[in-house]
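Researcher: Next sequence.
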Amino acid sequence: MSTPVFALEPDQVAGAFLSACRLDVTAFKPGNVSVSAPGHGMRAEDFLVSAEAAVPALSAPALSVGTRILRAVEATRRVVSCNTNLGILLLAAPLAQAALTPLSVAELRERVRAVLAELTVGDTEQAYRAIRLAAPGGLGRAERHDVAAGEPEVPLLDAMREAAGRDRVAAQYISGYEDVFDVGVVIARAARERGELPEQAAVEIYLSFLTRFPDSHIARKWGEPAAQAVRSEARHWLEQLQRAQGVAQMRAILSSADAKLKAERINPGTSADLTVATWFAIALEESLRAEYHGSRAGGPGRRPSVNGGSSV
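Model: Next structure:
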């Protein structure tokens, strides 16, 4: 008997996304905005209201990836005056699309690959409009498929391929979200087995991304040498945290790192965006697996909680 196709409901996708965005600001990630430490002219509330504004477009049925990105950015700009979530939305839209599309496979990674393969020139056009509206710092110019230069002529996957060497968000489109699944998700699941709190695991994931490659956001704004310098420092911070004895010592390490980065006006935004995408992916895949087993049994799938505690 063939496995029936199935998909998540919009409310499941919405819940998973909002949970990931809440964890993004409750985790104390050095250099980023959190409930414990505002910075870069922004507060945690800016990111929370941005998530609430963006989630209807991100979780709506029957939209293209490009439409999700553009509508979510438009909604965000109506509630905040700065770029709080462009990278998050660029990463989240294909993940949401993969979960909302009726398919017969439970593995989110396979679903994402199928979605990426179907991206069109229309998706590129709408994504470019979203990027221009969000106006991220340090965007620069490209020789081919430049965001600021006229109408695009290639599908979004091809445009991302052109940018993948200089932008880690674009690289996820080309690799099938390799960093998210092979780094972030692996670390999160190991953290759950050790009994770590989601906030603690989120910091570990964030610093692990920051140590594995130069953060694209830092490189765009401050140059590759600055990004490499932060990468080296992040290795030291991660080692310190792994040796730390107790919450107070961990907090002191994070506070020192956070103060240093913010004093230098450095925000490792790409590593943070990948961390959000990781938590979003975990929650979606857990729900998809429940729906898969329910469809195999001939009944509705179990809908697990998508709050922060169930995401690791």
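Model: The chain has a mean pLDDT of 90. The chain has one domain: 10-310.
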